[in-house]
Each structure stands twice: as structure tokens, then as C-alpha cells.
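Table S2 (continued). Query chain:
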Amino acid sequence: MKEYKISIITPTYNRANLLPNLYQSLVKNAQNDIKLEWLIMDDGSTDETKEVVENFKQENKLDIKYYEQENQGKMIAINKLVENATGDFIVDCDSDDYFTDDAFKIFLQEYEKYKEEKDIYGFCFLKYNQNAENMGNTFKKQKTTMFNLYFKEGETGEKAIIFLSNIRKQYKHELEQNEKFITEARMYHKMDEKYSMICINKPIMICEYQEEGYSKNLKEQMKQNPYGYYKYFEEILQKNEKGILFKKRIYAIKHFILFSYLTKSKHNLKKIKGLTNKLLYFLLYGFGVLKTKKQF
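Corresponding output:
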């Protein structure tokens, strides 16, 4: 088997206490004779993150590249790390996540089965919590797109994605109005337009969410970054509606109304594709505005 290199990228902010779990999981994976590099972007931490990473580097068990930036947010940190990654594959890993002991061995075995396919941009694996519980459903299809996975196939929960570097480097997280955050799905959906994803029903990543994390404070993230979310849902509603689950249509339209209100965007039915979606928009608009006013 050809020797491949895998780049793990981690944006971090005041998570010095969590990084050792991720570090140890990477060390264990490297012991399987797998070439790894770990790129860390410190997004303006005020704790001892730098000292902790320096201690890791002194152990000389991993190829670690440490970068610093003034607090600009997770997405800009990821964009910069992707630019600096030198591996054949790239995987995002938050500081409160870590890998199973055989994660990259499993990945490379699966990659060998599909490496001749030219239209794939990555491999999607299951993600477990610390109780060994799947954070969502198992995959129904072996080859799909991230949009179809969640909007047509009814998938739930987070997944672990390993990207082919030559394709991943062609994309970045697009931010609006100097905001600091946007859902990763916006970028995935643009990758879906040209490529597909291979789905493997095996876990390679473990997660324990933190109270101060992005997912735990989703409502606040939405309030602080409405323009990016508005564009995200606008783009969803411009897609062909065929095959989209009804509950997902409702989800997209409700959020489009929410962020239309937060961004003070005018009605524009040209931004909504499909007669059914247009009718649902009219039916839900008044209720959606009232609910948004109450919650935000």
C-alpha cells in the first residue's frame, strides 16, 4: 500500500485542558505506521494553550505545526489551516473531539476500495459520543452527497469527514458581512455540485460537547451571524425541490424567514425555487416573524 499522509486540522480557543485527549489519540494512530501531521490554529487563546502544545512538540512523537491569530473565529482558522496542510487527505477535528485508536487505519483500508473513483471528494464516517453511542443514524447509501444525506435521506447527527486534499483545497468557508461563523454545510453543498461522498458505517471519531462550544450555543451563533445563515438557507431554497423531505422543506423555510427578519431582507420569491416552497413560505411567514420576535 502506498504511504499516504493525513493532515489533521484543529482550530482552538481556550481549550488547553482538552487538547491532550486529541493529542494522545493521534499518537496512538501514528503508532500504526501512518504518517500524520497535526496543524493547530490558536484563535487568540488566553489560557496556556501555547505551552501545552509546546510540550507536545518536545515529545517529538508527532509532526505538529502551531499557528496563532487574533480572535477571528473558527472558520477563518480552518481556512488558513487548509492552506498550510501538506497531506494527501485533510480532516477537521475540533479540540473537544478525538479519534479512535484505529481511525486512520480504517480510513486507508476503505480508501483503497474506492481510490479509482474520480468523482468523490471525501469519506464520511460515524461519530460517537463518549458512551459509545452513535451521534445520529447509520448511512442508508454508500455513495451520496452531504446535501442528499441530510435533506433527502433523513440523516441526523454529526459525522466525521476525511477529505481528499486536492479537492478540499479548492474550497473555503465563505463568511458574510465580516461575521465569524457559518455552518460547514454551506461549503459542503458547494462541493456536492461537482463531487460525491463515500459513506462508511464505522466510527472513527469521539466527541464530548462543551458547554461553551458552538453547538451548545447555536442560538447565540445564529443571532451574531445572521447574514451567513441567510445566504445558506437562500441557497438551499434555490435547489431543485424534488426528493427533499417535507420536514426539511419546513426547516429550511422557517429558518429562511427567521434570517430574512434578522437581516431585514426584503421579500424576493426569485430566491425560492418551486411552487410548493413558495406556498409554504407564504403560509409560514406571519407565524415565523412572530416567533422570531419572541425568541430574538
